[in-house]
């Protein structure tokens, strides 16, 4: 009688198990937050020597580090674990030299860190009346809050994914410099918002709308110029030269912006930052900002306008003809060069709209803003079906949901791995995306 050999786990399951086990010890987000507090107690370069989880009912960790003054440690205790809504709320800090911080010291640390109370919570005796204990509705309310947060992220990815999909639909090529057009839009919006603030016009919606329109027009011209000076000359090539040229343009835009405006971050004043309470159980409140509603309306309006242009105008018909067969469209009199240049301009304007959302809602824009955002939007376009306009918005919504929910319920350090892992799975099992179609031109 032959004995059956033991069955080994597939490599994929081992990889998933390894990722899950890495999150069973110290939460990477909590360790990063605790690490940011070290400069409040020690100056100079910091070298982390070790991170360990501490026992207790609430999750806690201790960082051991070395500075010019010697080896020290800082301990941080948080209000929740990986799957709980309070996992980012710091409730206690202690150091080897000061012991547990007193309430006033904790308050001063919060002010020094510049973090909102939701991220760096106060003890009950400092932060006001004690909150009600969580109810059975709290998980559902937390879920609804993440849906609201994901909608704004989906707008950014969806708008930029539209720029990718329009260019790919007509040329069968990916313009990797599209992310840098988003960066230009974000930087110009931040500068325009700063100028409005200095002029005392930052609270006027029409003034902000004027900045939006100006930035979109300027970036549309950038897209048109990009095609006119670079891609039109490479249109007849049948190799990867256009892709390499796009990479070169991306680097040139990044370095040009860095040399012109420096590497510092721009933080424009928040736009329409009024907070509205939607639902509450006494322990957790679902809120939304006025700016989030404006962003959703703007994105919906731009998508509806694009749909009308593609369906009702001469340019839309020319674009659809070129997407079906460039050679046949040229034979029946379609001006290919003008159609492609207009497509680059429209894609640049949509990329600028995504950049404006980043600047006014998230802030912290710099010359490197468009790099990772561009690749994620490309992933959204591929997932939705690159070349499909509805697919671009669908892919942006899906990627925004996945990224937001992963950040809320799991360690945020892995969210980029998840985003590009999703792209890899679609490339393997559904290369045409959710709403894409097979192309017959060899691309």
Q: How would you sum up the global shape?
A: elongated
Biggest sheet overview: 5 strands, antiparallel
Q: Regarding quaternary structure, how should these chains be classified?
A: single chain
- Termini distance? 56 Å
The helix-strand sequence is HHEEEEEHHHHHHEEHHHHHHH
Category from helices, strands and their pairing:
alpha+beta
What is the average per-residue confidence, as pLDDT, rounded to a whole number? 81
Strand content: 5-15%
What is the helical fraction, as a range of percent?
A: 55-70%
Q: Count the DSSP helices.
A: 15
- State Rg: 25 Å
The total beta strand count reads 7
| Strand line-up in the sheet with most strands | 1-2-3-4-5
> Which residue ranges are poorly predicted, with pLDDT under 50 across at least 5 consecutive positions?
1-24, 117-129
Give an overview of the whole structure.
The protein contains 15 helices and seven strands. Strand 1 and strand 2 form a beta hairpin. The strands form two sheets. Strands 1-2-3-4-5 form a five-stranded antiparallel β-sheet, with helices on one face. Strands 6-7 form a two-stranded antiparallel sheet. The N terminus is likely disordered. It is elongated and about 80 Å long. The chain has 443 residues and is of the alpha+beta class.
What is shown here, in short?
The chain is an alpha+beta fold and 443 residues long. The protein contains 15 helices and seven strands. The chain has helices at residues 11-22, 28-36, 103-113, 124-127, 138-171, 178-198, 205-231, 241-261, 290-312, 314-324, 326-331, 336-362, 369-384, 389-409, 415-429; strands at 47-54, 60-67, 70-78, 90-95, 99-100, 275-280, 285-289.
């Amino acid at each position: 009688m032959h004995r059956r050999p033991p069955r080994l786990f597939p490599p994929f399951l081992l990889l998933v198990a390894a990722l899950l086990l890495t999150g069973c010890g110290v939460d990477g987000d909590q360790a990063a937050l605790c690490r940011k507090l070290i400069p409040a107690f020690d100056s100079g370069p910091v070298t982390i020597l070790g991170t360990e989880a501490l026992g207790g009912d609430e999750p806690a960790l201790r960082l051991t580090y070395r500075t010019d003054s010697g080896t020290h440690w800082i301990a941080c205790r948080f209000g929740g674990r990986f799957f709980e809504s309070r996992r980012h709320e710091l409730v206690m800090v202690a150091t080897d030299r000061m012991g547990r911080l007193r309430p006033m010291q904790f308050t001063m640390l919060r002010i020094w860190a510049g973090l909102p109370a939701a991220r760096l919570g106060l003890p009950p005796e400092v932060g006001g009346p004690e909150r009600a204990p969580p109810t059975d509705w709290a998980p559902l309310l937390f879920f609804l809050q993440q849906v609201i947060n994901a909608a704004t992220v989906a707008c950014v990815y969806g708008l930029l994914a539209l720029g990718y999909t329009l260019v790919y639909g007509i040329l069968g090529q990916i313009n990797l410099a599209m992310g840098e057009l988003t960066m230009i839009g974000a930087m110009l919006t931040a500068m325009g918002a700063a100028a409005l603030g200095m002029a005392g016009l930052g609270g006027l919606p029409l003034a902000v709308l004027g900045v939006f329109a100006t930035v979109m027009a300027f970036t549309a011209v950038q897209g048109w110029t990009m095609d006119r000076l670079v891609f039109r000359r490479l249109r007849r090539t049948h190799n990867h030269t256009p892709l390499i040229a796009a990479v070169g343009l991306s680097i040139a835009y990044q370095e040009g912006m860095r040399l012109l405006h420096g590497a510092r971050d721009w933080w424009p004043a928040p736009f329409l930052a009024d907070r509205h309470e939607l639902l509450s159980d006494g322990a957790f409140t679902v809120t939304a900002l006025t700016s989030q509603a404006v962003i959703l309306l703007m994105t919906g309006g731009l998508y509806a306008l694009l749909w009308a242009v593609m369906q009702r105008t001469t340019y839309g018909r020319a674009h659809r003809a070129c997407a079906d067969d460039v050679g046949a469209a040229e034979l029946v009199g379609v001006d290919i060069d003008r159609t492609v240049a207009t497509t680059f301009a429209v894609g640049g304007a949509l990329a600028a709209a995504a950049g404006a959302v980043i600047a006014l809602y998230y802030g912290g824009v710099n010359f490197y803003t468009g790099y990772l955002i561009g690749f994620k939007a490309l992933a959204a376009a591929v997932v939705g079906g690159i070349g499909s306009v509805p697919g671009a918005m669908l892919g942006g919504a899906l990627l925004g949901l996945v990224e937001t929910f992963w950040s809320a319920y799991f360690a945020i350090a892995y969210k980029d791995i998840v985003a590009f892992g999703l792209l890899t799975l679609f490339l393997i099992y559904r290369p045409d995306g959710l709403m894409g179609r097979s192309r017959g031109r060899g691309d």
